Amino acid sequence: MPLNRPTICVLGCGTMGIAIIRGTLDSMSGADSVQCSPKSSHATVANESGSDPEEDLLRPAGFIACVSHQESSVKLKTILGDQVKVLYGEAGNVQGVSEADVILLCTKPQVAKAVLSAPGIQEALTDKLLVSICAGVTIEQLQSWTTPTTTVIRAMPNTPCKIREGMTVLSCGPTTDAQSMKFTSNIFSTLGRCRILDEKHLDAVTALAGSGPAFACVMLEALADGGVMMGLPRDVATELAAQVLQGAARMVLTTGAHPAAIKDSVTTPGGCTIAGLLTMEDGKIRSTLARTIQEAATVASTLGRDKK
Ligand SMILES: NC(=O)C1=CN([C@@H]2O[C@H](COP(=O)(O)OP(=O)(O)OC[C@H]3O[C@@H](n4cnc5c(N)ncnc54)[C@H](OP(=O)(O)O)[C@@H]3O)[C@@H](O)[C@H]2O)C=CC1
Ligand SMILES: O=C(O)[C@@H]1CCC=N1
After folding, report:
1. Residue 212: which of 181, 238, 241, 245 has the closest Cα?
2. Which residues pair with residue 131 across a beta bridge?
């Protein structure tokens, strides 16, 4: 299927839909300008830079965002401005999918089947690419709710996509073509890091990377609490904790160092770090965090199932 400068419909534009649109528009706003097309009234991105023409063809031409309720559509317009065409309700979904080339399914997993099975959607999806970010919804399920003419890809991004520091994992189905995969990987690579893995890993990915920002923020908040306990002002403690986590994470990502080696390099014999580390180990922090991912992955695997 041709994917030159496609229009993307974000079907279910809440937290993640907004993060993906915002991050993508920001990624293009440097060299490119985003403007509202009077003809189609959805956002178009005009490239005036001398960038790679092949990459340019993979950039979205514009976004359409679909939500369920009219009130949400009003709020969304104030968040995304006139760069994005906003539609709501069942008729809005059919219109949005019909006008787009690529559909990003960002509803809650529990409503994915109903949204894709609604009258007019299957026809509107003919010969199009459907990328689902719904936790626990498998490629097999997505294929069974669409016709064979629709190409299906599963993605698991996370909220930091909004600031282009995201982590996304993609899985393709047996019939996914290379161009669809290249386009999808290009979109998510501009929003942070992007990897392709076999679908069997996606529940673990959902727990570690999808839910991960929540777990990381609980750790961040707890570290800051400790600083506050020892007299630091809250804003200072939060800044220190956030920068420490970012710095340590960047050391792992940029140097490739093992986390244990970085820990050891901080730990002076008989010093304060080993005193703190032993206290952490007494609290079983390692197994608590590892079990957190295990439990979240177990629940993720159930999210696409019909509720009895
Ligand atoms: N939140 C996260 O960190 C992550 C979430 N995910 C996955 O992303 C998906 C979305 O999550 P999230 O963004 O948090 O959810 P939100 O609740 O923030 O957004 C869901 C959106 O879907 C819309 N919606 C609901 N029903 C319909 C419908 N019938 N037709 C069209 N739109 C509809 C809602 O509109 P309205 O407001 O009008 O009801 C809302 O805009 C989930 O499947 C989740 O598993 C994946 C990775 C990370
Ligand atoms: O909590 C959830 O179910 C979703 C999936 C990953 C992050 N949030």
Report:
1. 245
2. 104, 153
Q: What letter does residue 201 receive in the DSSP assignment?
A: G
Ligand sitting nearest the alpha carbon of 157? 1
Q: Do 129 and 1 meet the contact criterion of CB atoms below 8 Å apart? A: yes
Dist CA 38 CA 82 (whole Å): 11
Q: Are 80 and 42 in contact, with CB atoms under 8 Å apart?
A: no
Label each residue of 94-139 as H, E or C: HHHHHHCCEEEECCCHHHHHHHHHCCCHHHHCCCCEEEECCCCCCH
Q: pLDDT category, 30, cuts 50, 70, 90?
A: low
Task: Encode pLDDT of 77-130 as tens digits.
Answer: 999 998 899 999 999 999 999 999 999 999 999 999 999 999 999 999 999 999
- Ligand 1 contacts (CB < 6 A) are 11-17, 66-69, 72, 93, 106-109, 111, 115, 133-135, 156-159, 210
Confidence (pLDDT) at 51: 62
Is ipTM over 0.90? Answer: yes
Is the pLDDT at 44 greater than 60? The verdict is: no
Q: What is the spatial order of strands in the sheet that 7-11 belongs to?
A: 84-88, 62-67, 7-11, 102-105, 129-132, 151-156, 166-172, 192-196
37 is annotated as contributing to ligand binding: yes
Q: How far apart are CA 201 and CA 248, in angstroms?
A: 26
Residue 61: which of 16, 10, 11, 100 has the closest Cα? 100
